[in-house]
Amino acid sequence: MNLGKSVLLHAYYHGSLPYRRFRLRRMAADAGLPITVLFYHCVSPKVDNSWTVSPENFARQIEWLSRHFDLISLEETQRRLREGNRTPAVSITFDDGYADNEQVAIPLLLEREIPFTYFVTLDPILRGEPFEHDVLIGSPRKPNRIETIADMAARGVEIGAHGRHHVNMGQIENPDTLWDEIAVAGSELGRRIGRTIRYFAFPFGQFEQMSLRAMDACRQAGYAGVCSAYGGYNFPGDDPFHLQRFAVDNDLIRLKNRASIDFRHLATPRFEEATEEHEAESLGIHEQPICP
Fold this sequence. Notes:
Blueprint: H1 3-29, E1 36-40, E2 42-43, E3 52-53, H2 55-68, E4 70-71, H3 74-83, E5 89-94, H4 105-111, E6 116-120, H5 122-127, H6 132-136, H7 146-154, E7 158-161, H8 175-193, E8 199-201, H9 212-220, E9 225-227, E10 242-243, E11 245-247, H10 252-259, H11 271-282
């Protein structure tokens, strides 16, 4: 991040903090405090893309989060969305499955007994080959080994499914292919690590990489919940099956803004609402005005 943008984000954070705290106290009083779900990819000294965080900055981020929030599991997040939430809370997740995370990120979270969910893409991990999106930018990285994933699960880490091939689920029209990516790959992952896979995260996770068909497949596969990646907060009363997430990068100030509820993001529509509205428009369905 360039210096000018960093200065503006710091000014925005500190300038808006009193208002945020006021608004959040009112939300908490009604048990309506939103929960932020964050997702990391890779924690590594080699920071050469927007989805890698340095070990030093990761430690600073976790320290700040630990001081200001309940750090909770996805299961606890869902419970609070059903029953109400009065305490600032954050849930931490990881996507893909990078071997670099074994050096600092995973040991730190395990040592501090911080719950987190680790979503893995099955095929690269079984083959031991780098993820295609890293190869495309000329920065291939080793994935975790399946034995490492099994050891993490044995130590209490929630392992989640992230597809078989890290593909765009929104473009898959063949139902058999979609079922293999979502359900079969998740079941196979579970068998290999000896655990039930309860959560699924959409690769890429933007609106265009999701579909109502894929969401239905996740429900039919028996997942307890799914995660997107386009941003947005989770409010008590929202459907707890779909958890919206914010990406974390190498800058602490951006994390501070998002985790402490940045009101600029409150208008982000949920995928289901935006998709249903788009489909209604494409079919020429419009709400009729109510006559007085």
